[in-house]
Amino acid sequence: MKLHFALVGNKNCGKSTLFNYLTGSNQHVGNFPGVTVQKKEGSLLADSAISVIDLPGIYSLSPYTSEEIVTRDLLLYNKPSAIINVIDATNIERSLYLTLQLIELNIPMIIALNMMDELATGGGSIDIKAMEEQLTIPVVPISANSGEGVAELIKRTIEIAENVTLPQRLDFCSGPVHTAIHAVAHLIEEKVRRKNLPLRFTSTKLIEGDEEFLGELQLSENERDIVGHFTQEMEQALNSDREAAMADMRYAYIEELCSFTVHKQQDTEAQRRSVKMDYYLTHKYLSIPIFIIIIGLVFYLTFDVIGAFLSGILGNILDGITASADEGLTNFGINPAMHSLIIDGIFAGVCSVLSFIPTIVTLFFFLSLLEDSGYMSRVAFVMDKLLRKIGLSGSSFIPLIIGFGCSVPAIMAARTLASERDRKMTIMLTPFMSCSAKLSVYGIFIGAFFPNSGALVMLSIYLLGVMVAVFTGAMLNSFVFSGKPVPFVMELPAYRMPTGRSILMHMWEKAEDFIHKAFTVIFMASIIVWFLQNFNSQFYMVNSNESIIAEIGKLSAPIFEPLGFGDWRMSTALITGITAKEVVISTLSVLAVDASGSVNLPKLFSPLTAYTFLVFCLLYPPCIASLATMRKELNSRWSTCGIIAYELTIAWIMAFIIRHIGLMLGFN
Amino acid sequence: MSQITLDKLPIGQEGIIQQVGSEGILRRRLLDMGLTPRTRVLVRKRAPLGDPLEIYLRGYELTLRASEASEIIILVEAEEK
Questions:
Q1: d(CA A12, CA A16)
Q2: What is the pTM of this model?
Q3: Nearest CA in chain A to B60
Q4: Residue B7 distance to chain A (closest CA, Å)
Q5: Contacts of B31 in chain A (CB under 8 A)
Q6: Where on the phi/psi map is residue A598: left (φ > 0), alpha (ψ -120 to 50), or beta?
Q7: Which pLDDT tens digit goes with each residue over A362-385?
Q8: ipTM score
Q9: Domains with residue ranges and CATH for chain A
Q10: pLDDT digits (tens, 9 = 90+) for A411-423
Q11: Domains by residue range for chain B, with CATH
């Protein structure tokens, strides 16, 4: 039978580094069905017949967050051949808390004791043999960064998986907790066996009051009462409640175990360094200026220096390919319609999206540097209070800031958020952060209409976007996600130098994602848009001002009439602008040509209409690429459609309000 | 010996957790992260805007909001000089 291993561990324990080391590029990233929790699968570099899944970083197997539920369900119903439990040796007590729960699942299991090298820098050591004896599962020290010990880890994991070596000891409790668990286990044994669930784990969860298992087992009224009775007896004997009693029992055992297996002399080098770095990075006055400098530098390097440079090179290459394809097709004497479809439609559409790649890859290079080094959680710590008002936590700050650069990586960056609720909300808010593509629209209009108050107009547009995001967040918080937010109880991991491999993998993952999108969604969209722009409703090829899209523009003009965009050329520009914001300008430049042959915007727009037009551009859906990303990350077509509808509505309403305030104030 | 809630514990001071209040997901999360009775905690600092707090326990750094910390009752052994 084919072996499959599951990697389980806390956040920041080096699990993903190990996964990357094990699988190299043989990995596939997706989502778990129905939730926005990331799922990473791959096959071993050493033996491609063995598959590995990297489960989300969790601290416990309680049924509260979607990460925990996904992990639990996979381990319970989709039993892996072995669990590789990755443990951070420098943070052993909290790591073992999850270990004790995993052992109860009664699946072959091994501990990968990561960061032993770091522990040694503080003079610490762990008695591996004693720990193996106590936990009755193999413990292999490794370094996920250097790959030390990984071969041994895999060898032993294969052994336990093939021989189905189960943990010999499941019972780590004593006293009243022990009594209660055994009593419940005895009671439910028959039912659990029929459901093919692990007995010990199920009993523990019943005592903890886990509603999911109470439902799953279909316990009778009488049985529920008995479980309740055992639990009460335990609570009385301990003068504690069930949840505290269970957590306490586990930690008490862990403390005892660590007292003779772990010898820690002082903080490790990384821990000492972190305290020093945090003095500045989370300093009362310095932290915010430092953050602004760092993020400013990232933006500058991405959008002005490195990303722009690489984009230029890629742009030239793509232009070259397009030109030679153009020439080849012409020489071949292909039908002009087909020629136009391939060059103006597909090549133009796909290339415009592909040219984003350098920016995205560069941005994610810096982001993974910030994320993997541990700085991102400090940003969350510093900024938390600002975002709390709209029901988010500090962790959403980074994705929202990236939104000012480009919505696509911003939506992707939301993946690192700890809770599904925050993740969805952040994804919905990012498009209101005015992205850099919209800048081209603002630039042209400001040049034509507000040459003397450009900065003010620009600032007001950006602020309006933020205000709409705050309003939307507050609305989502009160009506859509009105449930309790996930508590902001987060580890601040020690600063560590990220490995080159992890960063490269991360960049490749995003680039691959984007390339895939360019050749699927964007490919289709380009063909459709080309068709609409080149054919009329009788399917004759015509100029763009007689095309279907112009027809739609004319038909929809009355919708835009109250906003002052009654001219069909404006509505057409807005409609084609859904593909990308630069297209608003290119469409206008085709349609708004006056008799002399030059583009004349002031003939089409009054200053007030121009400003209102900018407001509409700010708020309505940013581009096809961002919509496709949103659709993928939210994993729901309906949510995406809902967001599009909301963005269109809010754009219309805000433009309407601003136009009428403007009219009242005497602008025209 | 005096009892206060964790959010009131001054920066740089240590205490011992006596009781973890709250309920549901928050309580479970606090317990899972190792904030169990008899655990020693140290308040490291507060965020620049005054909230959340950074605490140190079981060899690692944890951040939580003052409102969440106010659910945790701490026993302070003696006033440090």
A1: 9
A2: 0.86
A3: A91
A4: 14
A5: 243-244, 247-248
A6: beta
A7: 888 888 888 889 998 999 999 999
A8: 0.94
A9: 4-162 (3.40.50.300), 175-263 (1.10.287.1770)
A10: 988 887 878 888 8
A11: 2-76 (2.30.30.90)
